[in-house]
Amino acid sequence: MFVKRSRKTPGPSRWARARARHRWLDHLARATNRYFDYGGYHYVASISYFSLLSLVPILMVASSAAGFVLATQPHLLDALMNAISGSLPGSLGGQVSSLLTGFVEQRTGVGVAGLVVGLYSGWNWMNALRDALTAMYGQNRSDQPLLRTIFVDVLALLGLAAALLVSFAITVSGTAVGRSLLRLVGVEDTSWGHTVLSVGSVPLALLADWLVFLWVLTRLPRERVGWRSAMRGAVAAALGFELLKQAGGFYLGLISVSPSGVAFGSVIGLLVFISLIARMLVYITAWTATARDAPRKPIQPPAATQLRPIIVPKQHSATAAVLGAVFGALGTLFALQGRRRRK
């Protein structure tokens, strides 16, 4: 007598048990899945590309502003040209001085071209950033007219610039207040006074970064997000941004010891820094959107379906009848030939 053994149903894997045991690990896994499933790496590449493209018009506008300053300060322009002529050998100094003079004369055209290119690249950058945040939140990109989309994205870009100015003002004002307090106490020139000022400026920088990232996470998606659900994501983004800034300062200190490091290492470091900032922001958006207390979009019921019977009429094919007759005749012919061979 044989007894049939029942197969034991396999239980959950170690990864599933770990996710069920630790909520933070489950949240991290859900955020990672959303980041990859919703094409987060594609959005990061797009944001990084337009960030690099925006650097060129920014440099053009900055150079134009420097040209206006030099045009209003002739003695400064003469001192700069004399310094260039004295440091470069032969006729090279004269050529560079003539280029600098021509650049100062064309400062208006350079500035206008930089603004035009900057508006184009800035709109594409903001459009890519808003699309990335919208996708990570699981929202649908609204199909609005192109002019309206450009107008809204430019307004969002100006809003981000205003948020950055507020953040910068908070940091600068806090640092100025700290220096004033150290001056009143009489420890401004001491090393430990500078240490206290540096340590005290970190919370102000974190607060300023938190405000900026909170505005980004709630106002840049195509559909507005509540402030409460994005607060922890903004905290994580502010901490990550400060860590990346510290790592960037350490990296610049390493490459500044050699000319080749300054020439190539700075460019590579800038590329990596922009990519890491974009990746961090997109991933934290996915992390914020997959939180258990994040607002869920209401599930719309499916549309009503109508069943319509389709009656297909029978079709008598003459071709089928002809083919049947031909195959029947061939079969009869083969049978007669077989009988003759047997006889």
3D structure, described in words:
With 343 residues, the protein is an all-alpha fold. The protein has a domain at 20-58 and 119-289. It is built from eleven helices and no strands. Helix 1 (14-21) packs across helix 2 (23-37). The radius of gyration is 35 Å and the shape is extended.
Secondary structure layout:
Layout: H1 14-21, H2 23-37, H3 40-72, H4 74-87, H5 92-105, H6 107-136, H7 146-185, H8 191-219, H9 227-255, H10 259-289, H11 318-342
Helix pairs in contact: 1-2, 2-10, 3-6, 3-10, 4-5, 6-7, 7-8, 8-9, 9-10
Considering DSSP H and I runs of 4 or more, what fraction of the residues is helical?
Answer: over 70%
- Sequence stretches where pLDDT stays below 50 over 5 or more residues: none
Number of helices: 11
Order of helices and strands: HHHHHHHHHHH
Classification by helices and strands: mainly alpha
User: Globular, elongated, flat, extended or rod-shaped: what is the shape?
Assistant: extended
Task: Report the strand count.
Answer: 0
Radius of gyration: 35 Å
Span between N and C termini?
Answer: 62 Å
